[in-house]
Write a structure and sequence with these properties.
It is built from 16 helices and two strands. It is an all-alpha fold. The longest helix has 60 residues.
């Protein structure tokens, strides 16, 4: 080894206690940061253990230097505890890195985490940890003299051989599957195992220079940084993918709604008596809902309000199944015809249930089906098709019932003239508690001026 290299190593050796403290602190800060930000994957848990182990490793290494040769009782125990942690933490780091690497390969689906090489690593880790524990009672790796000075023993070379064998296995995996690993981490994962091997060579020939531990801690910090960057990139990709999925879902929803609304418009074009009914009732529902949203006790969510407005145009879609002779009749229905006409509520629910059965919005399906099925139910139970009573009637159907009847009263039909707002209002108010939900009365009263303004402009 040339003089320049030896001089460089001596400089590192002279300041290594400060380096140990700095790197140990950085690893511990990373450990705390990871705890606070969450560790929801096996890979992150492995990295968490690796960072804590690296922090303990360098802290123990530094303590071993500080208490070596200290004959006091404190020095006696601290020197032995520090050296035990120093040796055992190396295997914790190798074990957590092994878990981390398994997860990397598992994500790429290129290598089974139960591969024979990983099993060999597990076996070597078990042997290594066992020998460290045995050494505490047999001085197999090292011993202390009466002045509490540390000396390597005959078995010390084993403490190098086992980790080196594990590192060589890691290198073989990294090289073989280099192209399958995340691009941003390929070189780092290789360096994580290669650098300690190079450092081990120097540590064998330069006593007192802990190149391996300093290198491992530095690699642990870099691994966290690159993993964080890789996670950020993954989260960004996931966000882009999620945005793309949401955009496509929105397009599907819009296509589905446009199809259903088109069917509803087609039905209305067949029914000569209800021109514009779809748009007017949707606006009636909107006005009522906006008044209800002002009542904070109702806790109306914005999403639910949107569902009501989207479902409103579909409430009469069942009329598509009613024959033209009845649907297009000019004049009042006979009792028999009226019974046929009443079937549109149940048929509409069936149609919407089938069309929306595979929708990505099950809540929308529920609201739309309920609105079509039960908007002719009455609060006192005398409505159709099921004769539901009171709160058995879904809220969306109770809201639609008011908007539907109000439109029927103030709009001109082939069999009747339009009523004045005063006449319509009187019928609606008289129906509160019998035909309509009494608790909705105050919202109807609040909405009344806006309803009259709207219908004045759209009749």
């Amino acid at each position: 080894m040339n003089g320049g290299m030896l001089e460089f190593l001596e400089v590192i050796k002279a300041h290594q206690l400060n380096y140990m403290l700095s790197l140990s602190s950085m690893c511990f800060i990373i450990f705390v940061f990871m705890l606070l930000t969450g560790i929801n994957t096996t890979k992150r848990k492995a990295l968490l253990v690796l960072e804590l182990s690296a922090a303990i490793l360098l802290f123990a290494d530094r303590s071993a230097y500080l208490f070596e040769g200290d004959p006091s009782r404190t020095g006696f125990y601290m020197a032995r505890i520090s050296n035990f942690l120093l040796f055992i933490m190396n295997f914790f780091i190798l074990g957590s890195y092994s878990t981390y690497l398994r997860e990397v390969f598992s994500e790429t689906k290129k290598l089974n985490p139960k591969h024979i090489r990983f099993k060999i690593i597990d076996f070597l880790l078990l042997i290594g940890v066992s020998l460290v524990i045995i050494s505490q009672f047999t001085d197999f790796y090292y011993y202390f003299d009466d002045s509490n000075t540390y000396y390597r023993n005959d078995g010390f070379i084993i403490a190098f051989i086992i980790p080196v064998l594990i590192l060589f296995i890691f290198i073989s995996l990294n090289i073989q599957f280099y192209r399958q690993m995340p691009k941003g981490m390929r070189l780092l994962l290789l360096l994580f195992t290669l650098n300690p091997l190079i450092s081990a060579f120097f540590q064998l020939i330069v006593y007192g220079y802990d190149a391996i531990n300093l290198t491992i801690a530095a690699m642990a910090i870099l691994l966290f940084i690159f993993d964080l960057l890789d996670v950020s990139k993954l989260e960004k990709n996931n966000k882009n993918l999620q945005d793309e999925v949401e955009t496509k879902n929105e397009k599907i929803i819009n296509m589905q709604e446009n199809l259903i609304t088109s069917l509803a418009v087609l039905v209305e074009s067949r029914d000569n008596s209800t021109g514009g009914h779809i748009l007017r009732t949707r606006e009636g529902v909107r006005i009522l809902v906006e008044e209800m949203k002002k009542d904070k006790q109702l806790n109306f969510s914005e999403d639910y309000c949107k569902l009501l407005l989207r479902a409103a145009p579909m409430h009469d879609i069942g009329k598509i199944a009613v024959e033209d002779a009845i649907l297009c009749k000019k004049g009042r229905f006979t009792p028999e015809e009226y019974e046929v006409m009443k079937t549109h509520a149940e048929k509409g629910a069936d149609i919407l249930h089938d069309i929306l059965s595979n929708t990505i919005e099950p809540d929308f399906q529920t609201v739309a089906v309920n609105m079509a099925h039960y908007h002719h139910e009455r609060w006192d139970g005398s409505g159709y098709p099921k004769g539901l009573k009171g709160e058995e009637i879904p809220l969306e159907a109770r809201i639609m019932a008011i908007a539907d009847v109000y439109d029927a009263l103030v709009s001109k039909r082939v069999y009747k003239e339009s009523m004045s707002f005063e006449e319509a209002d009187k019928i609606i108010m008289e129906g509160m508690g019998s035909q309509f939900d009494k608790s909705l009365e105050k919202y109807y009263i609040a909405a009344r001026p806006r309803l009259e303004e709207y219908y004045s402009q759209h009749q």
